[in-house]
Amino acid sequence: MFNIMIVDIILIKIFVVDALILYFMKGFVMVYINTIVWDFINKVSEEINLSDITILDKFRKTVEDSNDPEEIIDYIIYISEELSSSNASKIAATYGYILAEKYFSNGEKILKDAKKNYLYIFMKSPSTTEIEKATIIKLLKELKEYYRDRNNLKKQILYTRCLAFEESSMGFYEYSVEHFEEMQQLLHMNKQYMEPEDQINWSRMLIFVGDYEKTLELSQNLRDSIKDGVVDKKYIGSILLNVVTVLYRKGDLNGATKILDEIEKEDTNINLLIWRARVCACNKDYERAIELLDELPDSYTKNSLKGEYQSKSRKDVQSLKILEKLYTIRHTFPTISHMFTNIRYSLALSRHGLYDAAEENYKEALAVFESLLKRSPNAEYLKNTKNKLDLCLALLLLGKGEKDQAIEVAINLKQDIESRFGVGNLWANDVNEFLDSVKNDKSN
């Protein structure tokens, strides 16, 4: 009896001590969380719109009255969706996720909610930083694995699809293709078919990694499905544009032109002027290409191509104006567009004898290229980009008076293009022009 009483007393003491430890630990957690929350309130206050003031005031009162970390984090997640300011929503989603991950790493529901909320807020945002995009990829992978462990095929498909699209927007084309392929397998397991929009986007990613045959195969399957009435005819224009891109990249201008004519006959709403302009430029009809581009509203692609064609066809320095303007705002473009702007500007500047500025653009483009190469070492579009960079280098070396080195770079470039696309391919035109100009210069 006495021994039982001693045991009871010891157990009571342990319980009381544990309760006190938990109480004080929760107190320390609340002090820390409150510090972070007030920092969050100060940051959000700088970003909110007038319509958000009531939401933030209500949140302040909740924080002051609450001693429950989970309740506070739940409320941060809630207001991130209610705030009308995009920046304020992103701040709230970030704080909610950070706090949930720190204090509820084993609290499955709230951490999962915080992750989903972060994705919801940031994936619908028109502008996200590289760090934010990397966080999106990380969370999508974690959620995909979470649902895989629970054999939830529907959710696995959802997050695999999101990964494919997010990776494509970051230039991770090879990973994007892998996730489209994984999505196809998951859909098959779930006895579903991939939506036409997803097959079209998958085809685009395959073009970037150079799998032209698979692109044409997917495109033909979709065309057959349209004929059989399984897929809506409204997709025909987008399907055929992927075919045009493949033929254009292979240097088959006649084939590309025929498909463009077919798209027009289908009476789709797709504007083909940019593609018509590209074909004209490949045939060295730059003035006609510029005329076609002038019929289009302003866009990065239009202005970038127009600047390139003007610099080739018109030898006055005024033709550099469009590319110069694009260069000054290039950091507002996605990373890949930024790189292509520098390449086009470098080539144009060299053609006008402005070698110092051309070299600056070449180096900036090369730095971006090298960072993208680490992400996707086998991507076909980067092999094509390397060809353009080598042409930039050849022109720069020639401008510095290093003719022999310039010729060596150009000959190696020509051999690489012909090994990939065949002898006489249109992509060797610029290189051949360069070599001819150097040969004529030597003979003079």
Could you provide a short overview of the structure?
Helices cover 79% and strands 0% of the residues.
Describe the structure.
- This protein is an all-alpha fold and about 450 residues long.
- It is built from 21 helices and no strands.
- It has helices at about 1-45, 55-65, 70-80, 85-105, 110-125, 130-150, 155-170, 175-190, 195-210, 210-225, 235-250, 255-265, 275-280, 285-295, 300-315, 320-330, 335-350, 355-375, 380-400, 405-420, 430-444.
- The longest helix is centred in the N-terminal third of the chain and has 44 residues, at about 1-45.
- The radius of gyration is 29 Å and the shape is globular.
Percent in helix: over 70%
Apparent shape: globular
In round numbers, the mean pLDDT is 84
Radius of gyration: 29 Å
**SS summary, helix count:** 21
How many β-strand runs?
0
Backbone structural class: mainly alpha
**Secondary-structure element pattern, one letter each:** HHHHHHHHHHHHHHHHHHHHH
Please mark out the parts with pLDDT under 50 across 5 or more consecutive residues, or reply none. 1-29
Report the span from N to C terminus: 117 Å
Main β-sheet description:
none
How much strand content do the residues show?
under 5%
